[in-house]
Each structure stands twice: as structure tokens, then as C-alpha cells.
Amino acid sequence: MSASTTAVTSSSLYTTPAFWERLWRTSGLQFVGLFVLAWFIYGYQPPVGASADDLVAFYDGHRTRILIAAVISGVNLLNLLWFAAALRTALADAGQDGWGAAATAASAAFGALFLLEITVTAALAYSIAGAGNHMLTSALNDFAWALLVLISFPRAMLIMSGAFGLWRAGLISNALFAAGVAAVVLGVLGGTTWLSGVWAPDGAYARFVSPLLLLLWALVVSRVLLTRSPATRAAW
Asked: Do the beta carbons of residue 215 and residue 155 sit within 8 Å?
């Protein structure tokens, strides 16, 4: 085979709809990997009501690390939106376009709140925390924790759209569907963490359990989507 023929074959592979659809179906796996990476780089944000010294030490002292995590999280948000688009098309192919539309709406709402949270923490690290306005810094830090609680609702809807849609389409077992329903309930409960201790906005449930639900959901749905042959369409 000549070099020109090889080049044409390779080029045609990357321009096929099947290639791009399978690529976007792997976005869920990329989302999980980058989420964990950004989480470790970002570190532990000061809790609600933290002292001015703690706030400045974190946001101003770890400015570069926080901004790097913001960039990674921003890129990762694109992964989640593409993954939701892949889920929507898979559900539409299976005759469950209503649940696919719910996935699109939920991912858009989740993405908006997630982007707002990234913006707040990045702005604090970039200049606000180091400017000496401790009252504003404290208020925005608490606001970021509140966003972590409120984001639980669109996250639960996103999990629900995948669980119910894939189950109605016969693509997952009853056991996986039951696990999905449990994840939805636990996800909604994440929006009630306004108390103290474990059930505070900066408590263990909001920080660890709620995000873990989305990561596990992305892994399970990725496995389901990647075991199915991409549909033949010109929309990718």
C-alpha cells in the first residue's frame, strides 16, 4: 500500500461518524480521571466560617495550584457535557428521547453551577483573597460551599435520566436500575446538607459521598455505552 493510500485511509477513519461517537462515549472515563486529578491538586478548601488567616493561607498561598485545578476542571466540564450528549443519542436510538432530553437539561444545569463554583474559587485565588478584603473573601468561600450543596439537585437528575432511560430501553439490569434509584435518592439528600458535622455544607457527605455518586454513575454508563456499537448517523 502506498503512502498516499495509507494517509487517505487514516484520514477517513478519523472523519467517520462512528469514530467520533465512540470518542465522545469515552468522555465519561476522561471525566472521572480528570475530576480525581483536579480534586487532589486543589486540596482542602477552608470550611465555612474559616478565619481570615486560613483563607489567605489557602487561596493566596496556593494560588498557582488552585488556578491549575480550575483549568483542569474547566476542561473536564466539556468532557461531562460531551458524555451527556453521547448518552442522549444512545437513548434516542433506543426510543427513549424523553430521558435523553432530561440528561441534556440536567447536564446544562449542573455545568452552569459547576462553572460558577470554579469561577468563584479561581477569582479568590487570583486576586480577591490577597487584596485584604477578608469579609468578601469569607462570604465567597461560604458561597462556594453553598454551591456544592445546591449542585446536588441537577446531579441527581443527571443520574436519574441515565438510570431510568437505560432501564426503560432494556440496556441495564434490574439490579443496576435499583442501584441507580438509590444513587438518585442519595444525590437528592446531598441537597439537604445544611446542618453541622457530617451533614454540613463542608461536611463529609457533601465533599465525598455526593461527588462519588456521579463518578460511579459515569463509570457504569460508560461501560454500557462502550459495549454497544455506535449507530450510523451523520450528526457527529
From this structure: no
Which value, in Å, is the radius of gyration of the alpha carbons in the chain?
20
Backbone torsions φ then ψ of 21, nearest 5 degrees? -65, -40
Please state, in angstroms and rounded to a whole number, the distance separating the CA atoms of residues 57 and 141. Answer: 13
Range of the domain at 216: 20-226
Q: How far apart are CA 39 and CA 20, in angstroms?
A: 28
236 lies in some domain? no
Which grid coordinates belong to 205? 457527605
Is 2 part of a structural domain of the chain? no
Number of domains, the chain: 1
Asked whether the beta carbons of 151 and 107 are under 8 A apart, the reply is no
Write out the three cell numbers for 123: 477569582
- Which residues neighbour 57 within 8 Å (Cβ) at sequence distance 6 or greater? none
pTM: 0.88
Block residue for cell numbers 471525566 = 31
Model confidence pLDDT, tens digit, residues 175-223: 999 999 999 999 999 999 999 999 999 999 999 999 999 999 999 999 9
Among 94, 47, 40, which residue's Cα sits nearest to residue 193?
47
Kindly report the CA angle at 10 between 6 and 11, in degrees rounded to 5?
A: 115
Rounded Cα distance between 231 and 236, Å, is 10
Q: In 63-102, which positions are buried (b, 16+ CB within 10 angstroms) versus exposed (e)?
A: beebbebbebbeebbebbbbbbbbbbbbbbebebeebbeb
Using one digit for the tens of pLDDT, what is the confidence trace for 199-209? Answer: 999 999 999 99
Domain-embedded: residue 93:
yes
